[in-house]
Amino acid sequence: MNKIITGEDYINSLKNRKLKVYLLGELIENIVEHPMIRPSINAVAETFDLALQEPALATAISPFTETRINRFLHIAQTRDDVVLQNKMQRRLGQLTGTCFQRCVGMDAFNALYSTTFEIDKKYNTDYHQKFKAFIANMQSQNFVIGGAMTDVKGDRSLAPHQQVDPDLFVHITKRTHEGVYITGAKAHQTGCLNSHWLLVMPTIRLTENDKDYAIVGAIPVDAEGITYIYGRQSCDTRSMEGGNIDVGNAQFGGQEAMVILDNVFIPNELIFMNGEYEFASMLVERFTCYHRRSYVCKSGVGDVLIGAAATIADFNGAEKASHIKDKLIEMTHLNETIFATGIAASYQSKPTLSGAFMPDDMLANVCKHHVTKMPYEISRLAQDLAGGIVVTLPSEKDFKSETVGHLLEKYLKGKAEVPTEHRIRILRLIENMTMGRNAVGYLTESMHGAGSPQAQRIQIARQMQIDFKKQLAKALAGIEKDKKKILVSEISDYFGRVFDVNV
Amino acid sequence: MNKIITGEDYINSLKNRKLKVYLLGELIENIVEHPMIRPSINAVAETFDLALQEPALATAISPFTETRINRFLHIAQTRDDVVLQNKMQRRLGQLTGTCFQRCVGMDAFNALYSTTFEIDKKYNTDYHQKFKAFIANMQSQNFVIGGAMTDVKGDRSLAPHQQVDPDLFVHITKRTHEGVYITGAKAHQTGCLNSHWLLVMPTIRLTENDKDYAIVGAIPVDAEGITYIYGRQSCDTRSMEGGNIDVGNAQFGGQEAMVILDNVFIPNELIFMNGEYEFASMLVERFTCYHRRSYVCKSGVGDVLIGAAATIADFNGAEKASHIKDKLIEMTHLNETIFATGIAASYQSKPTLSGAFMPDDMLANVCKHHVTKMPYEISRLAQDLAGGIVVTLPSEKDFKSETVGHLLEKYLKGKAEVPTEHRIRILRLIENMTMGRNAVGYLTESMHGAGSPQAQRIQIARQMQIDFKKQLAKALAGIEKDKKKILVSEISDYFGRVFDVNV
Amino acid sequence: MNKIITGEDYINSLKNRKLKVYLLGELIENIVEHPMIRPSINAVAETFDLALQEPALATAISPFTETRINRFLHIAQTRDDVVLQNKMQRRLGQLTGTCFQRCVGMDAFNALYSTTFEIDKKYNTDYHQKFKAFIANMQSQNFVIGGAMTDVKGDRSLAPHQQVDPDLFVHITKRTHEGVYITGAKAHQTGCLNSHWLLVMPTIRLTENDKDYAIVGAIPVDAEGITYIYGRQSCDTRSMEGGNIDVGNAQFGGQEAMVILDNVFIPNELIFMNGEYEFASMLVERFTCYHRRSYVCKSGVGDVLIGAAATIADFNGAEKASHIKDKLIEMTHLNETIFATGIAASYQSKPTLSGAFMPDDMLANVCKHHVTKMPYEISRLAQDLAGGIVVTLPSEKDFKSETVGHLLEKYLKGKAEVPTEHRIRILRLIENMTMGRNAVGYLTESMHGAGSPQAQRIQIARQMQIDFKKQLAKALAGIEKDKKKILVSEISDYFGRVFDVNV
Amino acid sequence: MNKIITGEDYINSLKNRKLKVYLLGELIENIVEHPMIRPSINAVAETFDLALQEPALATAISPFTETRINRFLHIAQTRDDVVLQNKMQRRLGQLTGTCFQRCVGMDAFNALYSTTFEIDKKYNTDYHQKFKAFIANMQSQNFVIGGAMTDVKGDRSLAPHQQVDPDLFVHITKRTHEGVYITGAKAHQTGCLNSHWLLVMPTIRLTENDKDYAIVGAIPVDAEGITYIYGRQSCDTRSMEGGNIDVGNAQFGGQEAMVILDNVFIPNELIFMNGEYEFASMLVERFTCYHRRSYVCKSGVGDVLIGAAATIADFNGAEKASHIKDKLIEMTHLNETIFATGIAASYQSKPTLSGAFMPDDMLANVCKHHVTKMPYEISRLAQDLAGGIVVTLPSEKDFKSETVGHLLEKYLKGKAEVPTEHRIRILRLIENMTMGRNAVGYLTESMHGAGSPQAQRIQIARQMQIDFKKQLAKALAGIEKDKKKILVSEISDYFGRVFDVNV
After folding, report:
1. Where in the numbering of this chain does the HpaB/PvcC/4-BUDH C-terminal domain appear (chains A, B, C, D) (predicted)?
2. Which of A109, A126, C133, C172 is deepest in the core (most CB within 10 A)?
């Protein structure tokens, strides 16, 4: 296969693969042309086109190949690399109005890069070297990588090895000289069908008894033994109705599927962890650290929704009301908070032992935690500005109908100079983003992706250095008067990074 | 036609009417059997069945006919009548999980009852008498009444008579000895197809130049000249897919359509306002006063969603986590706030000149204003408890499929003792209520029904008696020391009701 | 002593008592004339004057004496009695801008009334009869009653009998034929010095080992063995500086003190529980049920603060800005939510076995829970409208100074027609209510009085009938299809009251 | 005078100045030893001591003198310089628990540096050169600079030249060959008495008629013609009572005074704007841009309050309750949001024409806007954790009293191993920060400093590029399909900075 360059190349690269994909109870022959799937492919294709149009933003020079590569395949060498991820993510959110599905792979790449380094350091293994070779290969082809982490989990109160059905977490079922075979299922796999390779990783902290679950490896999306079952989304079948209005955003959408692995083979050279169970938590935590601040993308999606809300206010002739303006300001304030907290995490990045840079984990969690709330409030305000018509609008077919189309044209007229269809299109976009297909990505995925709200609270609790803060209070309350002030260079963990003078 | 008694009678009463209804571009022959429409009919049918099962809650003795009638057709004779409306509304919200569409008619009946009384008092007209006759007739048949108020409005900055197209507000186009002809369109008409009669009313404050718009009258739903265009709802076509899982709530739904009136005739005896433009605002304000506190129904719907969220936590084995319990408490706290503020408005009812009781307008607005926010937060928390699976779940057809059904059965297993299908059903109910069909009623209708948030803020501002409060502050600040304390009996308006000792 | 009629009578009745009161390290001879204490006495005096001015609001006919008595001493005979408590409380909040300290006694009276009835029913004791006699006596004198519940508690993880120091909860130290002796301390005693009698009650659920702690009795405020230590409040000493501006609210304030009981005697006829430990929780829960919705008073205080904020906006010439108006609306919306949820609890009152009416416990908790947040937000908005000057204003002495007074007069001028002193007075009132003396009552007491926020969440959890709600959800999800609908008359607890058709 | 090095040097430098300072109606001879003033001096002294202990954090190399100087006197040469300001501010917030008063001068220095550069560029004046000389002089002495911007403003609806009294904004009253004389008053002057020099600046956008108001210059704090009137703070006189417990934070406090200028002379070489009225808005906007993100200091103060809340939970034995831990997490989440949004603004700094770096104005406003709310919520939660005792605690004098001290020791005991005095000290610190002296800085100054909430909303509105966002929405809605995608390098203003690839 030739190296993928353009979005079109990418779309072509997905054709003619032998995948077992089920959707609405049927086996899908051609995912590329399926109207329910295509918008999600288009969204990934934007990551290629952006790299061509904006190389400084969306590409980087690979330290492994010394060639220019897509930033989604790049290991962050500097703090600026981490920051530029966020900038690229916001721009892609603006251009697609949805999830462009390539961040999981990017964040998995970076997390695994430093984790394999540290496994090797401890065990003298060669995972890091093998992983670098894999990265270089992916970069040379410009492939899309899916990060397959979330297991289906079964009974949440039991560890992997304790489950009645051992397959409820992906695990090794057979070991040969050539490699291993794995079985299990990964849920909510964003963009999996649109990827070329999957990086399979454990999803939680593991113990010695879970050794067979401590497996990381790369498998091609069309590997033998994989079945994909496509997830339903709100209003998903509208894309099969033939029009392009009621879908709201005709071009772009997200994708999530369940990936079922039935004795899928991973050859030795593509195995990057194999039994080193104590590193599972490091991998998960580093992945979520990168990924939680990757939700800066939602500020780009938010830009679209704010724009849509402002547009419908214009079309309704209500744009000058002070409460309308005030709501747009509030939406912006919230949206920029997502951006600011995420990019602050990126700017506060520090190098790992491997040299790759990693964002600040506290601020990454603060960012993601806002993302579990603010898009919902932005969405609520967008519905406020839209008016009730956003949920009572007749169908595109009625608008196009010879019998009643003219009635709707007459009675849905807002401002004289605005075509009724434009008003309807913006309303359908708002519906799409607040309760339709892209609400899945903008809202519910914002809630649960990279960990549900409580996961962030736990991580914030771990890092909040409450003892350090108690010392501050006790000193000022006169309880501990004579303590010498601690030097900032002696402060560790989060506050060590806060007060790191090497900005 | 025989008097309608049961829900089944009601459903039968809707058959064989000659309506011009368009849905997805097609003329619908039989609305009763249409899978997209039927759930909304079922919801109205519940208002009949509840009256049979719970007469004390859902019926009353008519002062006009001295027979027992459905409470939705009753003019509130006492404060308790107003309170019992709320209790009935919450119960119906619990039983249907959606909008049961009969409140608009009830609230229009009550508002128009006292308004016609006051028009007659001023102009010596006979609207009130005619309206009482109409009410008695409706009661004797147990008909469903739709209140048709919201015009399409065109350019929001222009009065009705100023619009380029005069039809953008419903108005009289012709007057004869027998009655009047009206033209225009009413948007977002909740339950209109499911009604037997429509009460057409103006939607805003009118001035002398808008006299032709000051028309109130009753028309049968199947009157000549009416075209209905059915509104799309999120995920609406799922009800046409054949299953009963993916729809989430297979039995009940809401309904909103656009009603287009093309020279529809109203005979004199069914005209209840005709040119008395200065009473338009009284009618609108009284209607919204009743209707804003009718949103107590959403606390009943909220009960269902809280129950669904608690159930999925059980099914996931997460019910003991303190943060889960805390979120259920928060949802309850919010939900009961809706109930409490609404029922407080009802309890603080006062009689109008006509003798009919009307809720407290300040508290009704406080209630509705919470309704524009709290269901969104309850919904967000429900999605939090549901987990990401609520938006990535494969289709019912996949679950039922011979090829992959067993895989989903295996991998979507939660707690051992819970059937996988039950888990899926609850997840689909949560999807239905937070982004699917019933999210339309639970969220967006909560935002915009009975007036958008800003409408409540304006009404709160009108009633907040800021001068009275300034006096209180000035007295305590020592600015106005010598003022004698005002007697509570001398306090008027809202605080007059607050301090009314005749509880 | 003559029966107390007027506020002045009341103030006189406090003179010449032999109390051991410590304040700022000194024994106070004359609490009535002490400038730091007097404002709290004035606030209680208002409860007498209001009864004279507004008998319908602030008095009732005693069923025991058949004479007109102050409502604070009345046992609620009807739902309307409970509602009128709230109306009276809001009015007194408006008139004093602070805590008028008489609700604890009223709520303790009512809670103890029904609890003694139920103890007697079980044990055939005569507490209820004795308590009625005590009530009649208090009514005949129009005394002020303090309810002494909150123990100092020591180590929160230990039960009363487990504490190293047994005195950390009030308990019986000696029993004689004539009565019992008690020792311990009650913290945060609102208005205790301003009362004539204290009702001592346990503060938590007790077990068999805590029998000596299960003591309820009445003691005169000047009983032998009591020491009072007055609590400091923010800015308390300003009242000793001589002016009347910097204090903000010169006339009224709150009062809280610690009451230390050293072998204080209670004669048999004034003992209303003695060892029936299992009724301690009933007493506490009924008291908090009444008391949590008594915080409706804060909506009256909120009226003053909203008025002050509106006034300062006027004085600054900023009253027409849309954001100013919008903030006043928001403050009102929040303030009325407190009122509405509280009065809804009162309207939903039901009779206890004793015949006395008790508010709805769920709604009472919803009310109080809002009170732990909304006054803080109202206060924040008041500071927003006030401008920074509210915390940088020079002192009254500077304004009155010959040297610099004219400079302040010149430079603190706002609108030409408003005297500078008026502007300063309103600013000082806002300071008083948001961070000064009356912020203690308006904010922190709103947080912790009648139980801290978590106490309400626990009580809401107890009453939220989550299983009932799960059934609603399961029915609509199609999990439990064939269940017959439950009759509302078969629903118990909270929803039993919600759907009680005997409004 | 020798160069100031240590905090002690600084304190000495304030002695023996001839200032006219009024406080509580009296002329203060010695501000340094005045117990109400000294804590504010101590807070400034910390900025000197920190520079000694943490030179990398709190000093920089001056480009003008090439020597190491205090960072508060440094003109930001790089983005890192801007970021390090924030890091230093958070640390000082942690160490003092209050406002350390030196940021206004730092931010004024930086804003004026670039503004004078741009005035000179337009008018060929020499302000920039003169200002650099002034800076070098201040650096060589390590002086404290106060930025005097906020005029008293009089009638807010009138421009400076329209006021009845022309002195309500500071203006030139006389011009001579040697310089100018100015008259007027500056309100809310943080740390003015603790400064050595004041930079007088206009406070609003000016027009041609306001030319006499377009004056910027430096004056020594002890210049002839200045009168200072000290602002009262909540609980201010506690510092005069003799103890060190009830004050809460005995060592540190803030300071605000009114500065009245009566024909104060500014020599030509210290004039940095003189009539170039159109640059007033540039100066104000740049100053607020720096200053709004300087409120990152409040995250340091927040660290102390979170520590105090955690400590009191420990002392009460409540630290293990899940709701306690959850509230500490929430406080941290809010507190870190302040930090993250502020430091994001600093990291996104860009150079001005003068070469000095300036933060991102949108993000600076987002930061400050959060600061107007989040400290209030953190404060509310701290009061929640503290318990009601925080406002009912008896006085230090009672604790120390021979008569009742032992009773308080006994009854205020919490956990056995914690000295009662420690518990009291932490409670007093919480009172101090949430309603006492340092609440002035932590809350009300957070609300109004650097502009009240509405000022930030206006600035966010100016920068939100709503047309750009509308384009994004229209493109995705299919309204404007054929538009070529704009290059990020062609995007200007805020999004130009967002997408600037030169990180």
Report:
1. 281-478
2. A109
End-to-end CA distance of chain A: 44
Question: Is residue B155 over pLDDT 90?
Answer: no
What is the mean pLDDT of the segment spanning C296-316? 97
Sign of the alpha-carbon dihedral angle for D35, D36, D39, D41: negative
Closest partner residue to B473 among C304, C345, C501, by Cβ?
A: C304
Distance CA D147, CA D218 (A): 9
Widest CA span in chain D: 87
The residue written with tokens 């809310």 in the block is D188
pLDDT tens by residue, C108-135: 999 999 999 999 999 999 999 999 999 9
- Token pair of D160 as six digits: 């400076």
Summarize the confidence of residues D383-389 as an average pLDDT: 97
Put simply, the answer to whether C444 touches D388 (Cβ < 8 Å) is: yes
Q: How many C-beta atoms surround the C-beta of residue D123 within 10 A? A: 12
Q: What's the fold here for domain B7-277? A: Butyryl-CoA Dehydrogenase, subunit A; domain 2 (2.40.110)
Q: Which residues pair with C243 in a beta bridge?
A: none
Give the per-residue pLDDT at C155.
84
Q: Residue length, chain C? A: 503
| Statement: residue A418 has pLDDT above 90 | yes
Categorize the per-residue pLDDT at A1 as very low, low, confident or very high, splitting at 50, 70 and 90.
low
Tell whether A386 lies on the interface with D, counting CB pairs under 8 A: no
ipTM: 0.97
The pLDDT of residue A484 is: 77
Q: Maximum Cα–Cα distance for chain C, whole Å?
A: 87
Helices (H) and strands (E) in chain B, counts: 19, 14
Amino acid letter, residue B57: L
| pLDDT tens column, C321-373 | 999 999 999 999 999 999 999 999 999 999 999 999 999 999 999 999 999 99
How many CA atoms lie less than 13 Å away from B151 in the CB half-sphere? 29
For the annotated catalytic residues of A, the residue numbers are: 99, 103, 190, 256, 291, 295, 297, 445
Q: Give residues with Cβ within 8 angstroms of A205, minimum separation 6.
A: A280, A281, A284
pLDDT at C416: 84
Where is pLDDT greater, at D46 or B480?
D46
- Number of A/D CB contacts below 8 angstroms equals 244
DSSP label of D304: H
What is the average pLDDT across A194-204?
A: 98
Domain ranges of chain C: 7-277, 294-461, 465-498
Asked if residue A394 lies in contact with residue B258, where contact means CB atoms within 8 angstroms, the answer is yes
Rg (C-alpha) for chain A, rounded Å, is 24
* B389-393 average pLDDT score: 97
pTM: 0.98
**DSSP character for A415?**
S
Residue A198, helix vs strand vs coil: strand
Closest residue in chain B to residue D322, using alpha carbons only: B322
Question: Do A482 and A407 meet the contact criterion of CB atoms below 8 Å apart?
Answer: no
Active site residue ranges of D: 99, 103, 190, 256, 291, 295, 297, 445
Q: Do residues A414 and B407 make contact, with C-beta atoms less than 8 angstroms apart?
A: no
Query: How is C204-253 classified by DSSP, letter by letter?
Result: S---GGGGGG-EEEEEETT-TTEEEEEPP-TTGGGGGSS-SSTTSSSS--
Q: Touching check for C327 and chain B: CB below 8 Å?
A: no
Cβ pairs A/C, distance under 8 A: 8
d(CA B351, CA A491): 70
Candidates 3.30.70.100, 1.20.140.10, 1.25.10.10, 3.90.1150.10; CATH matching D294-461: 1.20.140.10
**Residue C356 Cα distances to B503, C64, C109, angstroms:** 18, 13, 11
pLDDT at B415 > cutoff 90: no
Can you tell me the distance from the alpha carbon of B359 to that of B352, in angstroms, rounded to the nearest whole number? 10
